[in-house]
Structure formats: structure tokens, C-alpha cells
Description:
Blueprint: E1 5-8, H1 10-25, E2 30-34, H2 42-50, E3 55-58, H3 61-66, E4 74-76, H4 85-91, E5 94-97, H5 100-112, E6 117-124, E7 132-133, H6 137-145, E8 150-157, H7 169-186, E9 192-194, H8 198-205, E10 215-218, H9 220-224, E11 226-227, E12 232-233, E13 242-255, E14 278-284, E15 296-298, E16 304-308, E17 313-316, E18 329-334, H10 336-344, E19 349-352
Parallel strand pairs: 1-19, 2-3, 2-10, 3-4, 4-5, 5-6, 6-7, 6-8, 8-9
Antiparallel strand pairs: 1-13, 11-12, 13-14, 13-18, 14-17, 15-18, 16-17
Bound molecules: pyridoxal-5'-phosphate.
Amino acid sequence: MSYPQLIANRKKLEHNTKIIVDRCAEYGVAVTAVTKCYCGLPVLAEAQVVAGVSMLADSRVENLKKLKDLSIPKMLIRIPMLSQVKEVVKFADISLNSEISVIKALGAEAITMNKTHKIMLMIDVGDLREGVMIEEAKAMVDQIGKVEGVELIGIGANYACFGGVMPEYDNIAVLSEVALYAEETIGAPIEIISGGNSCTYQVMREGRTPDSLNHLRLGEIILLGYDSMFDRKIEGSYTDAFTLVAEIIELKEKPSKPIGTIGIDAFGNVPVFEDKGIRKRAILAIGRQDIRIENITPRLEGAEIVGGSSDHMILDVTQCEKDLKVGDLVEFDMAYGGLLSAFTSEYVEKVIL
Ligand SMILES: *Cc1c(COP(=O)(O)O)cnc(C)c1O
């Protein structure tokens, strides 16, 4: 066993997923579980399938490939690369799209494979990441209608991704206008109106989404049991389905202000320190190679992250009542960026309970 370690609790993940699936069902909204934060690990995806999600989604085809043995529809939620259409048609049942050249390539590939590839057309409602602008949506629908091998089954949008634009009644309702147009003009069987990610959940709970909304792509709120957009815990969910563990390698009392002339730190920044006198500090064997240290919080009462470099993290433990020693393990909660970085780091051992 080695540290740092990321411990994932399957039962807690399943519980968190079920809570969100059931609550969304009250609003007629199906949940697609977004697996990219945990790199599409099949054992974790399976727990989400058991909890009743309608689909699994990832931004990477490589992750969808890992999930190929789970018999549930899979969605690619990043616009496909032209260079990858073959893998997309093979491993994704449906993909999010905004480029007609890509849709045509998907259609051609699907015909070769004797399949129909499903398409969700992304509308950019103003967040300015992917999607066709609303004025161009109808022309795009007309073009998709002429492509063989693909079937337009959904209209979707992103909110609060690049531009921070919040989901609201009106900017979700526009999706169903495009859907109606697609149904009437090209006879597209639009089953899905996909109104965003975790940030739409609370808006939906407050009754501020249109009835036509019937699909959400959810990662963060399920995994963390916490809604960072609205800074609130998800009622009844675990916030500790994932735990990061690191080991103490040095424990000493040292001044809080460096001694000598200050140049730059390991990352090219000029560090500024407040003189708090002599402090008790623990060095943990974890650093920026493993984790975004800004996105993790020690569970140890009284401990505070002072900083870190590539392989070391410095924890001020002056206020801790617990009697610490070298070799002790410290647990952390992770915010989204922390969890993502822990999963993608090959130095962090993954343990699935
Ligand atoms: C990552 C992603 C999501 C999930 O976002 P969360 O905030 O984790 O719920 C949904 N849709 C798209 C297109 C994404 O890239």
C-alpha cells in the first residue's frame, strides 16, 4: 500500500447517485452520470448504473471504451475530434455536436459500421463554450436532416462552464423551441432536452426550469454531495464518498517567515509571508504533481494548508489538539478540481472500497 491514496467508497457513491436520480425524477428529469472526474473507472460507473442513471457520459472516448461492458447507453460530451470519429461511433451511442463536418463524418462512419449514431445538437445560449448560436440553430437542424447515418435525438446546452452564464427559465426554454422546429421540419424524434450540468440542479429544485427540461448531465453534485455553485450540501448525501490520504514525513517547529533574502519560489512566484512567530508544521508527502492543493481541505481539526511545491505540502498544525507524529496519515476532502487531479495523477494510489 502506498501514499498518497485516493479512497473511493462505492456504497456512498451509489447512495449519492440514487438521491439525485430520485429527486430529478420528481421533475421528469433523467440523469446521465458524468464519469470524467473519475476517469471512467468501471467499478465506480457500475455503482451509478445500479443507482438508476439513464446513461453514462464522458468527455474522453478513452474513458467510454473502459465502460464498454456496461450495458447502458453511453454519451460523449465533448465535441468529437474528426480524427477520432471511428472510435466515437464504436464506443459512444450518442455524442454532443456543433459542427456539420463532424456530423457528416460520424454519419459516414456509422453507415460503414451498419449503425445509426445519435446526435445531440448543442446550442450556445451565451456561455460561449461549444454550440451553435441560437440564430444559427434552425439552419443547422436543416443541414443535419440531410445527413445519413445519424439521428438527431436531443437538443442541449452548457451553462456556467466558460462564461459563467447561469441556467434560467428562458435560456433552457429556447432548447425546446429548436426541438419543436426539428420535429416539425425534419421529423427528428427529439427525446432529450438537456439543460446542463450540476449547476442546473438547484435551479430545477426551486421550480425555475421549464417543464420541457427532461435531462441533466451530472458529475460534481453527485460525487461530492455538495453544490459548489450555490455553496450548499445536497440534503441526505455523503460529502465523504472520496477521501485523499497523505503521510507526514517531517514534523517540526519553525518560524512562519523565511530567513534570508526572498527571491522566487519553485513556481516563479515571489512569496509573501505573514510573521506569526514559531509554528508547528507538518510536511506531507504530496504535492502539485499529485493534486491541486488549492482544492483540498484537511479533515484534521485545526490544520491549515500553508502551501506546497511539486512533492511537498506544508500543513500548519499548531492549533491541532491531536498528538501527531511522523508517519501519521492525514485525510482530506476534495473539491472538484482536487478530485479530478487526484484521479488523473499516476502517483496517487486508487483504493476502491
Ligand atoms: C463535465 C461536463 C458535465 C458535468 O459537469 P458537472 O458540473 O460535473 O455536473 C456536463 N456536461 C458537459 C458537456 C461537461 O463537459
